[in-house]
Amino acid sequence: MGFLQKVFLAEEDIQGSKFRAIFIGLFVAFGGVLFGYDTGTISGILAMKYVKEHFTHRGSFTAGETSLITSILSAGTFVGAISAPLVSDTMGRRFGLIASTIVFSIGVILQVAATGQDLLIVGRVIAGLGVGILSAIVPLYQSEAAPKWIRGAVVSCYQGAITVGLLLAACVNQGTHARTDSGSYRIPIAIQFAWALILFVGMIVLPESPRFYVKQGKIEKAGNALSRLRGLPADHPIVEGELEEILANFNYEKSLGSTTVWDCFKRGNHQLKRMLIGLAIQALQQLTGINFIFYYGTQFFQNSGIKNPFIIQVIMNVVNVVMTWPGVLLVELAGRRNLLLWGAVGMCVSELIVASVGTALPDSTAANKTLIAFSCTFIASFAATWGPLAWVVVGEIYPLRVRGKSVALCAASNWLFNFAIAYATPYLVDQEHANLQSKVFFIWGGCTFLCFLFVYFFIYETKGLTLEQIDELFETCTSAPDSKNFIPSSGYAHESPDAEKAVVEAVEKV
């Protein structure tokens, strides 16, 4: 634990139970395993000999079939992410995660039962609804439940869990792809029940977000939830002080009126700017081309003449998992902006090298080795930076009154671009259509250059700030490059007489 203190903040800034703060954040991040595993398993399944023989008429999937089966999950997740606030803002973040596992499991049942494309597609749509709800609520719950000294690392663990899910999917596919019966695809799909069950049971035990209770006017429950999260008595000064600031900030926001989805795009409190930042960073995360590797990697390597494409896909996933954790440790040390900037540089250089060599030396051993090597450096750059930090940014930059809706819209932006890329990519690389092959990396490389420019001009540094102080940051700092020099005041509870009066009245009611 001493190492964590050195990496994140000084001892006096680490308040409450360190173990509990880390454990709860890591457990909720487990939802990412569902996300990652479901995303990663389809690449191998579509390349399996048994599946191609029994799910197609000519022994192989057409570009259109591959496009539909792969991308239809993202269509479901888009709808799920958009609808997540209907659950998370009314019944709670915790119940929303429980509901997502139930919906997801129904989709898994249909996929396991499938013997043809139609039922497989329906199952992927329903599973996508569950993944979409989950993807919008996990970073929301983590951001609201974690203390500021480890919030960035905790939310980053969500992406770490996604990478673990992707790796598990690649390993299971490697173990079953040679089977000559339906177990080749049913085993990888059915394993997803285990991930859903673990998250379901855990969320029954964990406390609700205290900020959700404050939003519902349940102040006593908010204090008890905060007490459980921090591992301190409800009347402890640290718990009371944090609850006071949450209450003050929310009452100030509530004085501005009721909220709707349209309030996420209002100019007041720089909300429109924040909304555009969140939507853009999630879209750009997908435009890096990362899911080209995980959706179509096995088939792409197979078509490029690389032997043992299933093994190569496992290697790519190992790199993805291993390189996520340096980002988790560095996010509170190096900051959000620096990691995102360097990550964009690493991805851009790697992808342009792959595209250039693949164009100059097509179908050569040298080109294949370069493809593998710099695909790994691209994945490493993404995994340590843009993978986790896109979720960190959207989890912490919004005011409480619109946080649930805003995070859901950002997650929907991620899935919308995920769907578009998953649908279009087979046509871009297929020999019967655009036939770009490795040239497609010129597109991804250009997008990662835009990532660099976007971060420099628009991403604010929020390292070491509470969610309430981040509100103050956006109100007082107009330039993203200058945000690293921001020094917060003592908080809304101390700077706003009206807010302080509202807090006193709320506490007296309890």
Automatic annotation (TrEMBL):
Superkingdom classification of source: Eukaryota
Gene3D superfamilies listed in its UniProt record: MFS general substrate transporter like domains
One GO term describing the cellular component: plasma membrane
Intracellular or extracellular location(s): Membrane
GO molecular function: carbohydrate:proton symporter activity; D-glucose binding
CDD domains named among the record's database cross-references: MFS_HXT
Cross-referenced SUPFAM superfamilies: MFS general substrate transporter
Keywords recorded for this protein, A-Z: Glycoprotein, Membrane, Sugar transport, Transmembrane, Transmembrane helix, Transport
Membrane topology: Multi-pass membrane protein
GO biological process, one term: glucose mediated signaling pathway
UniProt domain Major facilitator superfamily (MFS) profile: residue ranges: 24-463
Membrane-spanning segments: 21-48, 68-88, 95-114, 120-141, 153-175, 187-206, 276-298, 310-332, 339-359, 371-394, 406-429, 441-459
Family: Belongs to the major facilitator superfamily. Sugar transporter (TC 2.A.1.1) family.
Descriptive protein name: KLTH0H00308p
Lineage, broadest ranks: Eukaryota, Fungi, Dikarya, Ascomycota, Saccharomycotina
